[in-house]
Design brief:
This protein is 7% helix and 36% strand. It has 148 residues and is mainly β. It has a single domain, classed as Immunoglobulin-like (Sandwich), CATH 2.60.40.790. A hairpin with a 2-residue loop joins strand 4 and strand 5.
């Protein structure tokens, strides 16, 4: 596998799933797929601003940090507050076949899309097989000295 996901709250999510049932949606849902010569990772981050999203790459780890702030102010009387907020982090572990130097991030309409190209040096290529008989080089067979 060349792309793996791990978030910081995995143990907490597991405990919540055990307490409330198996269908707990994470605060930052993720979708990842392979398309052609790249991997695409899509994260839902509604209610956030572009300035509240940090994408950092260090070696083979991509860290995505999202801060979701409340819509209400300190003087507002809150009646219902079910929206998750705070700092959320997702980490993706990249395989050695991916080119993290060319990773791009796009944020449109509450959706963060990361595009990670496959490293060109890791794509399969055909090596032509030749023989010395096909070579146009001069004969380099060593000769033994003769006694004259």
């Amino acid at each position: 596998m060349t792309l793996m996901s791990l978030d910081d709250s995995r143990e907490i999510d597991r405990a919540i799933a055990q307490a409330f049932g198996p269908r707990v949606i994470p605060a930052v849902p993720i979708e990842a797929f392979h398309r052609g010569d790249e991997y695409v990772v899509v994260l839902d981050v509604p209610g956030t601003d572009k300035k509240d999203i940090d994408v950092e790459v260090e070696r083979d780890v991509v860290s995505i940090r999202v801060e979701r702030r409340p819509a209400h102010g300190p003087d507002d009387q809150v009646l219902i507050d079910e929206r998750p907020r705070g700092d959320f982090t997702r980490r993706l572990y990249l395989g050695d076949r991916l080119d993290s130097d060319r990773l791009t991030a796009d944020f449109t309409n509450g959706v963060l899309t990361l595009t990670i190209p496959v490293d060109a040096s890791s794509t399969p290529r055909t090596i032509p097989v030749g023989s010395l008989a096909d070579s146009t080089r001069a004969d380099t067979t060593p000769t033994l000295p003769t006694n004259a």
